[in-house]
Amino acid sequence: MTTRSTRSTDIDPDAASRKGSLATLRGLAPFLRPYRRQFVLAGIALLFAAGATLAIPAAFKKMIDLGFGAAAGAGATSGIEHVDATFAALFGVAAVLAVATAARFYMVSWLGERVTADIRSAVYRHVVHQSPAFFETTRTGEVLSRLTTDTTLIQAVVGTSISLALRNTLLFSGGLVMLFVTSPRLTSIILGLLVLVVLPIVLFGRRVRKLSRDSQDRIADASAVAGEILNAMPTVQAFTREGHEAGRFGASVDSAFATAIRRIRARATLTMLAIVLVFGAIVFVLWLGAHAVLAGTMTGGDLGQFILYAGIVAGSVGALSEVMGDAQRAAGATERLLELLAARSSIQDPLQPKALPARTANGARVTLDQVTFAYPSRLDSASLSHLSLDIRPGETVAVVGPSGAGKTTLFQLLLRFYDPQAGSIALDGVDLRDLALHTLRGAVGIVPQDTVIFSSSALENIRYGRPEASDEEVVAAARLAAAHEFIERLPEGYASFLGERGVRLSGGQRQRIAIARALLKNPPLLLLDEATSALDAESERLVQRALEAAMVGRTTIIIAHRLATVQRADRIVVLDEGRIVESGTHAELVALGGVYANLAALQFQTHAPVAA
Ligand SMILES: Nc1ncnc2c1ncn2[C@@H]1O[C@H](COP(=O)(O)OP(=O)(O)OP(=O)(O)O)[C@@H](O)[C@H]1O
Ligand SMILES: [Mg+2]
């Protein structure tokens, strides 16, 4: 089941207590701070626009009372003059409004786009620095969804909601002041009623926020499902599970829809509530006002002005409740993004990194001392236990053993993707935990068990090992890895695009690209995990020869199931259930007659008659 997203264990404990409603949005402050100047400019534009809006009803009152009122009473000419002047003023106000609104729109949209871009980059940068333990519990599709849909919600808030909120708060308070000036009695009544209006709005807002967070989670779930399946299409089709997978995604999307609808329903209710309550209050008060005009205690112009200001105030309350809904949604999204940002990688650079001793002609020394390690997700079973191994500079050590023995795990620890729970590992006498990660990983070249090819050209794929390498160096590395010939035969040679995840290459070709990439890096310690497993006998012989040449001047640890590839190693270490059970040269181990001798007997005498 993939309904509930699993969270990394390293998440900031504060995140749970930060469940306060809109306070979550405060987490965005560090992203807004660099743009103080733009905020101030937007604020100024906003003030002008709100001021202009608030001036319009006053102009209307003048027009009604002085223009029409005077026309009915005294001379008609002064009435016309007033009307002309008022209309000219009205147009002036509109012009200010237009310019200020455009300026505000521009500044605020700019801020929204900029801040969202910054958040996306920050989250991505943070995620790519996480250790593999993070990716064991977090699905990549989910991270992608956070990066795209969650940030879009934040963009809506920074890009429009903040400005709408400010504008409407200004209009609301300005309108209220003007209402007071027009008629203190009626306004007091309105205010009393407003308190009754705000309470249900706040309560509903909270519910919207929670539902919004759920809704974003469901979208992330759907993305995670899709991401995983799209990466495994050939397997899905080979097992004819397309219909099933489409259905699974459909169910995931429907679940997101259902959650969204609950959110939308809550929000619709919120909007209805706000409008009914606010307009109810206003209509009631206007009714009182109409009576006052009829009784002669209020002028027609006053009532007109009052109605317009009341309209502004009511409109701003309506807009504010909409904005609240948006802000609540963004708060839900922000919460998740902040959780991602708060995730601490369990593998950190040391505060004071040590340097590696200068590289020697032979390569690096690797020392494992009583290393015990269990994967974080399976702490009860150790994948390596009390492993001690001293590898001399320049030595070639082969690691063999049954599947699941812990061979790949050993490499993961050498690259410090995980720290052992007990014991220590040292490179050239320096504990791995005392080395900066880029120093350590810069000294290690690896050809992993599952080769990774990026969707770019053959040239760039090999150059990934050392970005500053020249084209000639790349070709030399490819020759060494017996990859040159097949690359030359590709439609565009080294410039050929290899397809996403290298789908346009055979398994053996991918492996040779990976070997070339590691050789180009020219590291003092080379790790080969089943580096030749996908090659036919002829290519294996070629690559084997190439690797032997490449092993000169460096320490090499090679994992292989096929013993033919390990016979010539200086030392063979037999690993079983995370322990070293035998170690020695091929000849010594065969003579010993233990696990290795058995394996060797099986592999080298496949045609021997089976004992009757
Ligand atoms: N990320 C992981 N989380 C939890 N357990 C893991 C993880 N990776 C490997 N294991 C477990 O650790 C043990 C050792 O795995 P490892 O990959 O080191 O085996 P291996 O010797 O490389 O096997 P193979 O020859 O099949 O590649 C296995 O029992 C495996 O199930
Ligand atoms: Mg392995």
Please tell me about this protein's structure.
- The structure is a single chain.
- With 612 residues, this protein is of the alpha/beta class.
- It has two domains: 14-342, ABC transporter type 1, transmembrane domain (ABC transporter transmembrane region fold, Up-down Bundle), CATH 1.20.1560; 366-604, Rossmann fold (3-Layer(aba) Sandwich).
- It is built from 19 helices and ten strands.
- β7, α17 and β8 (555-559) form a beta-alpha-beta unit.
- α3 (36-73) packs antiparallel against α4 and α3 (36-73) packs parallel to α6 (140-182).
- The structure holds adenosine-5'-triphosphate and magnesium ion.
Please give a quick description of this structure.
With 612 residues, the chain is α/β, with parallel strands linked by helices.
Features of the shown structure:
612 residues; alpha/beta; ABC transporter transmembrane region fold; Rossmann fold; 2 domains; 6-stranded mixed sheet; 4-stranded antiparallel sheet; 19 helices; 62% helix; 9% strand; disordered C terminus; binds adenosine-5'-triphosphate; binds magnesium ion
